[in-house]
Design a protein that fits this description.
Length: 258
Amino acid sequence: MDITGFSMDYFSLKGKTAIVTGGNSGLGRAFSLALAKAGANLFIPSLTADDGTTRQLIENEGARMEFLQVDITNEGTPKLIIEKCLEHFGTVDILVNSAGMNKIAAFKEFDRGKWDPMLQVNLTAAFEVSHEAAKWMMERREGKIINICSMFSYLGGLGSPAYAASKHGLAGLTKSFADELGSYNIQVNGIAPGYYATELTKETRNDPVANEKILNHTPANRWGDPVDLMGAVVFLASRAADYVNGHILAVDGGYLVR
């Protein structure tokens, strides 16, 4: 056993290309920037228009970014994403399935109109984009797929059964694909963020009762900052994680242990 060859270069993504779905806003933007800081070029398919903010952050790191404004749930879009990435960069080394949505409603009002879009974005699209990316990765016998799961990959979803179901499903998909693709040297893992201070959680953070409930359940006694997730995505995308497969990494300030 030779351990002398290890270096911090194991964490470098120089020369790699990463696709980050939904990587133009929210936590997706943090994932995109983290990968760029590690040396990767970015291909970002997103429903959110490119206003130049993410591009500037990435190009400031000396990385390239290409953008495709699409609805990833449309038929044929997952295949198009891979084709366009290959057209621009010639490779797909890393896929981060970050695009997601959540709708909350009382039990009696939660119908298929709320259920279907969440399952399509959070689970079906992740399956389809991963399936298309894996075809390329299998030929090269190398690749990383990272699914952005949730605390609701473990817990119930009060007011949002579709979100909980889709994130449980995404954790299961992660493990299934890890099993399927491991022999091709493709590692498939997940990241489960805890409660983060983003625009989407602003209303909850401003509610004293809800805010206190979450902080009392979090040993770190604070909301997560998007920067707390950036090291995790770089690690799972890098050579340092070549023997990590089928794992869901909770980055939650200890939420799950309390």
